[in-house]
Each structure stands twice: as C-alpha cells, then as structure tokens.
Amino acid sequence: MRQKLTNNLGLKLISIAVAFILWLVVVSIDDPVITRNYSGIEVEILNADAVTSQGKVYEVLDGSNIISVSISAKRSVLEKMSRDYIKATADLKEMTILNSVSIDVRTTRYSDMISSITPLTKNLKVEVEDLEKKQLSINVETVGIPAKGYVVGSNSPSVNITSISGPKSAVSKLARAVATVDVSGATSNIRASSRVVLYDGNGDVVNNSALTVGVTEILVDIDILATKEIPVMAAISGTPAEGYASTGKVAVSPDTILVAGSGSAFKSLEGITIPADDVSINGATGDVTHTFDINDYLPGGIRLATNEYDGNVEVTVYIGKLENTIVDVPTANIVIDNIPEGFQASLVDIGGSKRIEIQGLNEVITGLDASRITGTIDASGMTPRDTTIEGIHAGSYDASVRWNLPAGITIVNSSMMEVSLYPTTDNTALIALPQEGVAGIAGQTEHTDQTEE
After folding, report:
1. Cα separation of 16 and 21, whole Å?
2. How many CB atoms lie within 10 A of CB 202?
3. What is the CATH number of the domain that holds 213?
4. How confident is the model at residue 407 (pLDDT cuts 50, 70, 90)?
5. Which DSSP letter does residue 50 get?
6. Tens-place pLDDT, residues 84-110
7. pLDDT tens digits for range 124-180
8. Distance separating alpha carbons of residues 333 and 329, to the nearest angstrom
C-alpha cells in the first residue's frame, strides 16, 4: 500500500500544484480585484489647536475638505464597502509653509482585504489668518404693511447684541446684524421669532462657515399702533413795534398731522396747540415766521405716524402797519350815563357830530361806517369848568368819551366834550338854556316833557 502511494510521487505533486493554480485562476476570474471611487468624503481636521492656540483661525479653501477616495480590492469586498467606512483626516500639526496638509485615508472595515486606498485630493488647502472678534447691534426690521389705519411702532428684541469671531478678512467686512419680522395686515401687537442675518457694507448677506456667531435667533415684540389725523394750532404773545399790529391771521403749515399711538391719551387727543410763549411777535414790523419740531409738543406715548414727515411745523403771524384816519361820529350816538340824581345832562352842540382820529390796519378801517360807532360819557367823572363852586351843581363840565370801536381800532387822542348839567326841577334853568346850545338831553322825565309843552 505504501509503495502505491510513493509510486510516481513527483507526478502526483505536480498534479496537486497544477490543481491549486487552476483553483486560483478560477477564483480570480469569479472574484477579481477591481477599483472603485467613493465621493463626498469629509476630511476630519486633527489638532486644530495647533493654529487656534496662536490666536489665529483657519479656513479650508476650494472645498478641499470634501474629497473622493479610490479603493482597490476584490469585488466581493467592494460590494460590501460603503463611504461611511472611509475615514479621511488632515493633521494641522503637519501643515507646510504653503498652508497645505496631506490627507490620510483609511477604512474602518475590511482594511486587511484592501489592496490599496488613495485620496484623489492629496492635500487639504487652508488659509490661516489672525482671529478677530466683533460685536454688532441687532437691528429689527419689518417687511410688509399693517392693516389700513395702523402703523408699526417700537420694537423690543429679546437680545440686542451678537458677538462674531472668525478670520479677520471676513469679520472686518461685517456691517450689520438684522432680525426681520413680517407685519403684513397686522392690527395688534406681534411677537415673533426671527433669525439673525449678517450683512456686509454693500448690503449683501454674509454666509461664511468660518464665522462663529454668538446669537443666531431672537424673539421680537413689535408694537402696532392706531393712527388718526389731528389739527395743529398756535397761540401768539407779545406786542409788535409801535405803529404795527397783528392782523389776527395766523397760518400753520401743515395745519394737520397724522399721529399714532394707543391708550386713553391717544383716544382723547383732539389737536396740538403750540403755546403762546413760543410764538412771540414782540417788536415785529413785518410778518413773523417760527419753525417748530412738532415732536416736542406730542404727549408721551404718541408719535408721528410716518417717518417720511420730519415733524417741522411753520407758524406765520401776519403783521400790518397801522394807519390813522379822521371820522365824524353823530352826537346822537353818544350816551351820558351815571347822571347825578335830580339833574339832567346834555351835550353842548358841536354841529351834530364829533370828529375823532382813529388808528387801525388798512383792511379794518377801510369801509368803516362811522355812523355805527357809539360813545359813552360817565357823568360821575366829569370835571366842572367853574371850580369856585363846590359839589355837584348846574353848569358846564368837561367829559371824556369812552368810544365803542370795532376790534382792531383804537382812538388816537383822548376825546373830550362839553356837557351841560342842570336840575330837573328848575324849569327856569332849563328854559334859560339857549336851544341852539343843546345837542342832546339825557335823564329827561315826564316833568321835563310837560315843561316843554
């Protein structure tokens, strides 16, 4: 038996070797080594503190942190391979003076069955800069338009400052941080969450993954205010220069404003009056114009409804030059009051009229009807011409006339007239008066009428 096994031993060994080779050929044909590429592999950065510890930051350039990897292995292995099993790393400690870092790749599975693994992007490209920090105020902006009769009021963000850090070249371009809230059709206050968006000096949105932003979203309260139109008025104070007067016309421009607010103060507001102390015409010889900021006169909690109006209000007080003129007032229009008991009084005839000089603005005195002017004499204030007789007595008196003039007209000089005073019971005294010397009689009684009969 042993002899049979050892017979032709060399041929038998050769047969075994040939069979093994044939097996290898068959296996290679059925499960050959092939190469596949896997894309979208993110490179993990190692030892970033090698840069950041020096007060610097790095930024990956040209998307070199997302690579493709080529793997060669048997088909059966690659059929089980996934890009999730591929790990790519770049150690910043090994960064060259050209700011590039070689990329190492490996697999977390089947590594002993892989013929080769190669990154198609050999190096990670980075840019190293000084680290810069900046704080920006968060501005709240609105889009849309509230319902008719409402405007956007004040806003209150939950956080009003955000801190940003990153490459100096990127941080230095930042100009604004904005949170936007839509107020379209609003009729009441709004509370909304808003994302904080960064803008550069050109107004373009900045999206830079190299930037670290402290606050990225905030809560914003927006006041929605009702509006209404109210009049603007002005009072005046002071006296123009001598020979001038206010015409009484005060022009306010604009004479109405649109305001916004809420609460009882807003509902009860019916108008704004600029106080007299602020509108002085002292010493004026021509029209006086003052400009005011109406915001200074608005009650607390009430504001102008639009930012398009700057709040300037112009007040013009019209001043005219006074003119003098002479008019004749019928003496029949002059009444004597406060005649002493037991006496009558009459004006001494001066021709049926009293000439007086008056002063006023041209538009006031032009067309004045003198027949409508009246005057009053207070008999209790008359001065006797005969000062040798004490007490009230019959005789001639000088009396001052108080003229009842239209508004805007004044008497230039004091106006004196002669008045005759005589007892009502003294018929002799009455008859003794020359008839042509009596212009009018005041205080007559039935006894007087009878005497005239």
Report:
1. 9
2. 7
3. 2.170.120.40
4. confident
5. H
6. 999 999 999 999 988 999 999 999 999
7. 999 898 999 999 999 999 999 999 999 999 999 999 999 999 999 999 999 999 999
8. 7
Contact 171, 165 (CB under 8 A): yes
Would you state the pLDDT for residue 20?
67
Is 253:276 a contact under the CB 8 Å cutoff? Answer: no
Structure tokens at 356: 């007086």
DSSP string, 54-86: TTEEEEE-TTTTEEEEEEEEEHHHHTT--GGGE
- The total of structural domains in the chain comes to 4
pLDDT, residue 429, reads 40
Same domain, 139 and 212: yes
In angstroms, rounded to a whole number, what is the distance separating the alpha carbons of residues 245 and 256?
27
Query: Looking at residue 330, which CATH number applies to its domain?
Result: 2.170.120.30
Distance, CA of 408 to CA of 447 (rounded, Å): 43
Contact assessment for residue 334 and residue 359, using Cβ atoms and an 8 Å cutoff? no
Of 376, 379, 373, 368, residue with least CA distance to 422? 379
- Are 389 and 432 in a shared domain? yes
Between the alpha carbon of residue 7 and those of residues 16, 20, 61, the distances in Å are: 15, 21, 73
Whichever domain contains 40, its CATH number is 2.170.120
Residues in the chain: 453
Among 30-34, 234-238, 260-264, 447-451, name the one with the lowest average pLDDT.
447-451
Domain range holding 218? 130-226
Among 93, 121, 149, identify where a domain stops. 121
Tokens standing for residue 275: 């106080």
Q: Please indicate, yes or no, whether residues 34 and 117 belong to a single structural domain of this protein.
A: yes
167, 199, 226 - which closes a domain: 226
Question: How many Å apart are CA 13 and CA 21, to the nearest integer?
Answer: 12
Phi first, then psi, for residue 24 (nearest 5°) are -60, -40
Residues in contact with 28: Cβ distance below 8 Å, sequence separation at least 6, in sequence order: none
Cβ atoms within 10 Å of 56's Cβ, excluding its own: 14
Mean pLDDT of 274-291: 96
Measured distance CA(267)–CA(415) in Å, rounded: 54
Chain CA centroid to CA 125, Å: 50
